Automatic annotation (TrEMBL):
Residues 6-335 form the FAD-binding domain. It comes from Microvirga terrae. Its cofactor is FAD. Pathway: Cofactor biosynthesis; ubiquinone biosynthesis. Keywords: FAD, Flavoprotein, Monooxygenase, Oxidoreductase. This is UbiH/UbiF family hydroxylase. Belongs to the UbiH/COQ6 family. SUPFAM superfamilies: FAD/NAD(P)-binding domain (SSF51905). It comes from the Bacteria.
Length: 402
């Protein structure tokens, strides 16, 4: 059995794992990425917010990503709950806070393919398309056992292996999980009218129904509904589904047709007791799982990676190794509050839509009305959503050097 040694090993070759491997290799660390690519098309997209765009620019992959993405210049919210306190539709425009777009929407698989292409040519990065079967630590670092034989040793192991992370389980890191009485149906659609780079979110009593622009007259849909209704919708033929979408969207984009694969995602959440263990750091869905609301999941995963990168760089300047206790404690401090706040925000929004209680409806409607009519408040909220000023990792500030 052969053993290879690296500074940093990343396990999991999704978008978060690929970005982590690229980030560390970019800084000169001998890095290995372990795992096979998942390029199945399931109708899911991600809206990359401003910080994620800057991060991808720093990794040198943004031009390839932008070519397959559509800008989100306006975000429109329509209260379709039937509440007595239903406010008028609200529109938020990126130009109001000096941005060309709040973010860019791209199919998940296209993003993974762009990151993978960059990884194949990145110096100091080795790709090992195998599954990991074992994980252990000793004084020198962490050791990963591969399915086809051989081991990998590294000072820092980065677990980017998803919500069912084997590395997290082997490290004994506890989790809290919860679920909602909903599922989200995802699908790619073509439509008769231009979306005008506008994302439209209908707040319904069963959850958000969100149409997000893609290049051309195409949009991605996340339709959150009761589990039974989401299963019914996902079982419709293309023509019936397109008609159901058009009606739910109040014909706002004209006639629809299904233009890509569809998926069905149970609405659930996961949080962890801590973000690291001995020589191990958790990133992405190994550390937190969100329902597909508010574009938080992958953007938060990229923020994990950029924050871990800062902790490793700063720890190194103080003489600590990438997987040292001091470096990982710095990472823990950098992630805890950010993740908790985002988790609470997404959970709170979803539950307020489901409750149907008059006081809750009143507060939600009053809040949206205030954002629509009070310009300074609206701009503060928009900036915090896409351009937070506190605790932003350096690569998300547009800083290209360590």
């Amino acid at each position: 059995m052969t053993e290879s040694t690296y500074d940093i090993a990343v396990v999991g070759a999704g978008a978060v794992g690929l970005s982590a491997a690229l980030a560390f290799a970019r800084d000169g660390y001998r890095t290995v990425l372990v795992g096979g690519l998942d390029v199945r098309r399931d109708g899911r997209t991600v809206a990359l917010l401003n910080g994620s765009v800057r991060f991808l620019e720093a990794l040198g992959v943004w031009p390839a990503v932008a070519a397959a993405a559509a800008p989100l210049e306006t975000m429109r919210i329509v209260d379709d709950t039937g509440s007595l306190f239903r406010p008028p539709p609200a529109a938020f425009r990126a130009g109001e806070i000096g941005l060309d777009a709040f973010g860019w929407n791209i199919e998940n698989v296209a993003l993974v393919e762009a990151l993978a292409e960059a990884a194949r040519t990145r110096e100091a990065l080795t790709l090992v398309p195998e599954f990991a079967t074992g994980f252990a630590t000793d004084e020198a670092g962490a050791v990963l056992t591969l399915a086809e034989g051989g081991t990998i040793r590294a000072g820092l192991m980065v677990a980017a292996d998803g919500r069912n992370s084997k590395l997290r389980q082997k490290a004994g890191i506890g989790t809290q999980t919860w679920s909602y009485p909903q599922s989200a149906m995802t699908v790619i659609l073509a439509h008769d009218r231009d979306h005008r780079e506008t994302s439209t979110e209908f707040h319904t009593r069963h959850g958000p129904f969100t149409l997000v622009p893609l290049p051309g007259r195409r949009s991605s849909l996340v339709w959150v509904a009761s589990k039974a209704e989401a299963e019914r919708l996902s079982g419709l033929d293309d023509a019936a589904l397109a008609l159901a979408v058009e009606r739910q969207a109040q014909s706002h984009l004209g006639a629809m047709r299904v233009d890509g694969p569809r998926g069905l995602v149970p609405m659930s959440g996961l949080s962890v007791n801590r973000y690291s263990s001995r020589h191990l750091a958790l990133v992405g869905e190994a550390a937190h799982v969100f329902p597909p609301i508010g574009a938080q999941g992958l953007n938060l995963g990229f923020r994990d990676v950029a924050s871990l990168r800062d902790a490793v760089i700063d720890g190194g300047e103080e003489g600590h190794g990438p997987g040292s206790d001091e470096t990982l404690a710095r990472y823990q401090r950098g992630r805890d509050l950010d993740v908790r706040l985002r988790t609470a925000a997404v959970d709170g929004l979803n539950r307020t839509l489901l409750t149907g209680m008059i006081p809750t409806d009143f507060l939600r409607g009053a809040g949206l009305l205030a954002l629509s009519n009070i310009g300074p408040l609206r701009r503060i909220v928009m900036r915090e959503g896409v351009l937070p000023r506190v605790g932003v990792p350096r690569l998300m500030q547009g800083v290209s050097s360590g």
